[in-house]
Design brief:
Layout lengths: L4 E5 L6 H11 L3 E3 L3 E2 L14 E2 L2 H9 L3 E7 L2 E6 H9 L3 E5 L2 H10 L4 E6 L3 H11 L4 H16 L6 E4 L3 H16 L2 H10 L2
Parallel strand pairs: 1-7, 1-8, 2-7, 3-4, 8-9
Antiparallel strand pairs: 3-6, 5-6
Helix pairs in contact: 1-7
Bound molecules: guanosine-5'-monophosphate.
């Protein structure tokens, strides 16, 4: 049985990381897809765990070697999903959760038929603004670009399979776990159990 891809998007600062960390901690057989990025490391981030931090040149070399399932340029930096770890995980029945922007998510929808797309919305735009300001590494210009990007991302949410509103991390985490459980119980995932008995 092969693992499934769960693609999580939502504006920067909406709390996707916290939700995904909790999901990975609370479930066996779920792996977080560590992306490659050309953006600078933030305080508290760990290379190889938060992201693979690479130069623009290194990123372009990965692209040229076809090592990425998808990639996008987001507010001036490259972000992309390494393909190898995903193939290894799903090939051995492990589900993969990934935090990627709307452009990348819609590319995955075209390439991976049964990928599940989940959009995480903030309770309000003010909440996003406050979280971005709290990070400390975001200048007024970058903050403005990220907020504009968030507005555009909201306009694309109708293309997702599910929407979670993150007004409580606990509830948002439970909702994502529920979505993952339901998706794993879909008839096309389970029919082989029944057929084996015929
Ligand atoms: P941040 O700089 O705040 O960590 O991430 C900025 C945006 O890049 C977020 O919306 C995040 O979902 C997106 N992102 C992170 N990794 C990837 C990736 O591998 N591919 C794509 N397309 N977007 C990504």
């Amino acid at each position: 049985m092969s693992g499934k891809l769960f693609v999580i998007s939502g504006p920067s600062g909406v709390g996707k990381n916290t939700i995904l960390n909790r999901v990975v901690e609370s479930r066996d057989n779920v792996q977080y897809s560590v992306s490659a990025t050309s953006r600078a490391m933030r305080p508290g981030e760990v290379d190889g765990k938060s992201y693979y931090f690479v130069t623009r040149g290194e990123f372009e070399a990965m692209l040229a070697r076809n090592e990425l399932l998808e990639y996008a340029e987001y507010v001036g930096n490259y972000y992309g999903t390494p393909l190898g770890p995903i193939e290894t995980a799903t090939g051995s029945g492990v589900d993969v959760v990934m935090d990627i922007d709307v452009v990348g998510a819609l590319k995955i929808r075209q390439r991976v038929e049964n990928a599940v797309l989940v959009f995480v919305a903030a309770p309000s735009f003010d909440a996003i603004r406050q979280r971005l300001a709290g990070r400390g590494d975001v200048s007024a210009d970058v903050m403005q670009s990220r907020l504009e990007r968030a507005k555009w991302e909201y306009s694309q949410a109708g293309q997702y399979d599910y929407i979670i509103v993150n007004d409580s991390v606990e509830r948002a985490t439970q909702e994502l776990l529920a979505i993952m459980t339901a998706e794993k119980c879909k008839t096309m995932e389970r029919i082989h159990f029944v057929k084996e008995e015929l």
